Amino acid sequence: MQKKMLRRLWHVLGGLFFPTLAFFVPQTPLVIALGALTAIAVSIEIARFSFPQINPWLAKRIPVALKEKEAFRPTGATYLLIGSLISLWVFQKEIAITALYFSALGDPAAAFVGESMGRLRFRKKSLEGFAACFVVCIVVGFLLTLYTHLSLPAVALAALAASAIEFLSLPTDDNLTMPLAAGLMMTLVRF
Questions:
Q1: Could you write out the DSSP letters of every residue in 59-124?
Q2: How far is it, in rounded angstroms, from Cα 41 to Cα 28?
Q3: What are the tens digits of pLDDT across the range 46-62?
């Protein structure tokens, strides 16, 4: 249980780092730095799968970064870096920031509520987790509309898109798909 809570904290702090930094750093240098970090993470993943002895070594040294099911697939942290890189590269800055906050805060809220209070289940997800993700994304989105040029309808539809992606549990990791779905939705509504 403690490891699970540490992982959620790791997810939240890691997920909040780049969108928060984006408030203070110009987009282009941030994308370059994030690209370099992402390249390092992908290289580590390639090494993990090429040399099986690396997995246990990493799991022992940074247990909070590796779930058991990630022993044979890329980690959520790598998907988080890729999702952050693509979002900050492709979307307008305020859209990317909002989409990444949705992923950083909505996803752990869904997991926490779904695991502790989830009764109405679909596959491995719960409607209660979906609702928690949506509420967190709406609140975060509303707060960000106070500091950005985003409209409330754009943020609401993006919150719904991010929550639906988290709920559907698609084969690709939601650390990648949530911010991309939310960013795409805000971009479409804006235009």
A1: HHH-GGG--GGGGGS--HHHHHHHHHHHHHHHS-HHHHHHHHHIIIIIHHHHHHHHHHH--SEETT
A2: 20
A3: 888 888 787 777 767 66
Q: How far apart are CA 148 and CA 34, in angstroms?
A: 23
pTM, 2 dp: 0.88
- C-alpha span between 102 and 2 (Å, rounded): 24
- Compute the distance between CA of residue 156 and CA of residue 185 in angstroms, rounded to an integer: 10
Question: What six digits make up the tokens of 9?
Answer: 């904290």
Interval 63-111: pLDDT, tens: 555 666 666 678 888 999 999 999 999 999 999 999 999 999 999 998 8
Q: Is the separation of the CB atoms in 105 and 97 below 8 Å?
A: no
Q: What is the DSSP string of 126-162?
A: EHHHHHHHHHHHHHHHHHHHTTSS--HHHHHHHHHHH
Residue 16's domain comprises 2-190
Written as six digits, the tokens of 149 are: 């040029």
Count the domains in the chain.
Answer: 1
